[in-house]
Automatic annotation (TrEMBL):
Protein name listed in UniProt: MFS transporter
Topology relative to the membrane: Multi-pass membrane protein
InterPro entries xrefs: MFS_dom, MFS_sugar_transport-like
Keywords (A to Z) from UniProt: Cell membrane, Membrane, Transmembrane, Transmembrane helix, Transport
Entry keyword annotation includes Cell membrane: yes
TM regions (residue ranges): 12-31, 37-61, 73-91, 145-165, 177-194, 224-243, 263-282, 294-312, 318-342, 354-374, 386-404
Domain Major facilitator superfamily (MFS) profile: 1-409
Intracellular or extracellular location(s): Cell membrane
Coiled-coil stretches noted in the UniProt entry, renumbered to this chain: none
Organism: Sphingomonas quercus
Length: 412
C-alpha cells in the first residue's frame, strides 16, 4: 500500500505541476503572442497531449506488466515520468527558441503521459492484489489518494512560491522550481518501489500458465466488453476533475477576475475534501461494492454540474469554494472505487493491460479535450453549458455502470 501511494503521489505531483503551470504561465511563455485567450487554449492543448500518450503507455507498460511483472514495470514508469518532468525545468521559452521551445514542451508532456499511462494500472494492482479478503475497496482506494496528495503538493508549492516571489519572478523563472523538485521526489519513490516483491495474484497466474504472448490482443479478443465498460465508466471522474481544477483555475483567474493566490488556496482546501471522498468511497466499496459506489458518485456529479454556473460564476470566493468542495467530493466517489472496480473486470493474465487501457482511454474521452471545450463554451455562451457538459459526461458513466457487471471470477 505504501509503495502504491508513494509512487502515484509522485507521478500525480508531476502531472499536476504541469497542469497548474499550463493554466497560469505556459500560454505566453511557450506560444506566439496573439491574445491571452488563444495562448491559454494552446496551453490547454498540451494538456491533451498527455491523454493521447497515456493509452500508448498503458499498452506498452501493460504488456510488460502482464508478462514480466508489476515491480519492474512500475519502476520504469516512474523513471520516465520523473525524467520528463525534471527536463521541463530546463526548457527555453518561445522568446528564446521560437517553435523549438513549443515542440520540446509537447515532447516532454507526451513523455509524462507515457509514464502515467503505465503507472495507474500497476499501482492499483499492487494494492488490490495484496489485499486481504473483504478489503479490496479500501486497499484499492490507497493509490487513488496519490491524486489529491500530488495535487496538494503541486498547488501548495506554487502557492508558496507565489507568496514568496513577485509575479515577475514567477513568470521568468519561479515556475521552474516545482519541476526541478520532481527529481527529489522520484528518488524517494524509487527507493520505496525497489524494495517490492511480486504480487501473489501475478505469481499464482504464472504458476498456472505461461504469460500471454500479446496481452493486449487477448484483451481485445476475449475481454472487449469489459474494456468498453471500464472506459466509459471512468469518463465522469476525468471530466469533473479537469473542469474543477485546470479549467476553473484558468477561467476563474482571467475572465472571472479571482486573484490567483486566492483561487489556488481555495482549490487546495477543496482537494482535502476530495481525499475524504476517496477514503469514504473505499469504505463504501467494501460494504456494498465498487460499482454501486461509483453509481452514487456519478448521480451526484450530474447534480454538481447544475451548480457550476451559479456558484463558480457568482464572483464570490466563498461560493466558488463551496462549489469546488461539492464537485471534488463527488470526484472522490467517482474515482476512489476505480482501483477495485477496474481490475475486477479482468483476469490476472491481462489485468495490467486491461485496467490501464480502460482507465487511460477513458481519460481521453473525459479529460483530454475537456478544458479546451469548457474554455470555448464559457467564452461564447457562459458557464451554464460547461456545467451541462459535466453532467452529460456523468450521465454516460452512470448508464454504463447501470448495465455493467464486474467479473467475480477475477477477484483474486
Amino acid at each position: 500500500m505504501l509503495a502504491s501511494l508513494v509512487g502515484t503521489a509522485v507521478e500525480f505531483y508531476d502531472f499536476y505541476v504541469y497542469a497548474t503551470a499550463a493554466s497560469l504561465f505556459f500560454g505566453p511563455l511557450f506560444f506566439p503572442s496573439s491574445d491571452p485567450s488563444a495562448q491559454l487554449l494552446l496551453s490547454y492543448a498540451t494538456l491533451g497531449l498527455a491523454f493521447v500518450a497515456r493509452p500508448v503507455g498503458a499498452a506498452l507498460f501493460g504488456h510488460f506488466g502482464d508478462r514480466v511483472g508489476r515491480k519492474s514495470t512500475l519502476v520504469a514508469s516512474l523513471l520516465l515520468m520523473g525524467g520528463s518532468t525534471t527536463l521541463i525545468a530546463f526548457l527555453p521559452t518561445y522568446a528564446q527558441a521560437g517553435w523549438i521551445a513549443s515542440l520540446l514542451l509537447c515532447l516532454l508532456r507526451f513523455g509524462q503521459g507515457l509514464g502515467l499511462g503505465g503507472e495507474w494500472g500497476g499501482a492499483a494492482l499492487l494494492a488490490v492484489e495484496n489485499a486481504p479478503p473483504g478489503w479490496r475497496g479500501r486497499f484499492g482506494m490507497v493509490p487513488q489518494l496519490g491524486a489529491p496528495v500530488g495535487f496538494i503538493a503541486a498547488n501548495g508549492f506554487f502557492l508558496l512560491l507565489g507568496l514568496i516571489l513577485p509575479n515577475e519572478a514567477m513568470r521568468e523563472w519561479g515556475w521552474r522550481i516545482p519541476f526541478l523538485a520532481s527529481a527529489i521526489l522520484v528518488a524517494v519513490g524509487l527507493w520505496v518501489r525497489l524494495k517490492l516483491t511480486e504480487t501473489p495474484a501475478f505469481a499464482a497466474a504464472l504458476a498456472e500458465a505461461p504469460p500471454e504472448a500479446v496481452p493486449i490482443a487477448t484483451m481485445a479478443r476475449e475481454h472487449l466488453g469489459a474494456t468498453v465498460a471500464g472506459t466509459l465508466g471512468v469518463v465522469a471522474c476525468f471530466a469533473l476533475y479537469y473542469i474543477s481544477t485546470a479549467f476553473a483555475l484558468g477561467y476563474g483567474t482571467t475572465a472571472l477576475g479571482y486573484d490567483r493566490n486566492d483561487f489556488l488556496l481555495i482549490q487546495l482546501g477543496a482537494i482535502f475534501f476530495m481525499a475524504g471522498g476517496i477514503a469514504l468511497a473505499g469504505i463504501a466499496s467494501d460494504r456494498f461494492d465498487p460499482r454501486r459506489t461509483l453509481i452514487g458518485g456519478c448521480a451526484a456529479t450530474i447534480v454538481a454540474g447544475f451548480l457550476l454556473a451559479p456558484m463558480l460564476g457568482s464572483g464570490s470566493l466563498l461560493l466558488a469554494f463551496l462549489f469546488l468542495t461539492i464537485a471534488l467530493v463527488c470526484m472522490g466517489f467517482c474515482y476512489g472505487p476505480l482501483g477495485a472496480w477496474l481490475p475486477g473486470l479482468f483476469p490476472p493474465q491481462v489485468r495490467y493491460t486491461g485496467a490501464s487501457i480502460a482507465f487511460n482511454v477513458g481519460g481521453i474521452l473525459g479529460g483530454a479535450l475537456t478544458p479546451i471545450f469548457a474554455q470555448a463554451m464559457a467564452e461564447h455562451y457562459g458557464l451554464m453549458p460547461v456545467g451541462l457538459y459535466c453532467s452529460g459526461c456523468a450521465a454516460v458513466s452512470l448508464v454504463t455502470l447501470l448495465v455493467a457487471r464486474g467479473r467475480r471470477a477475477s477477484q483474486r
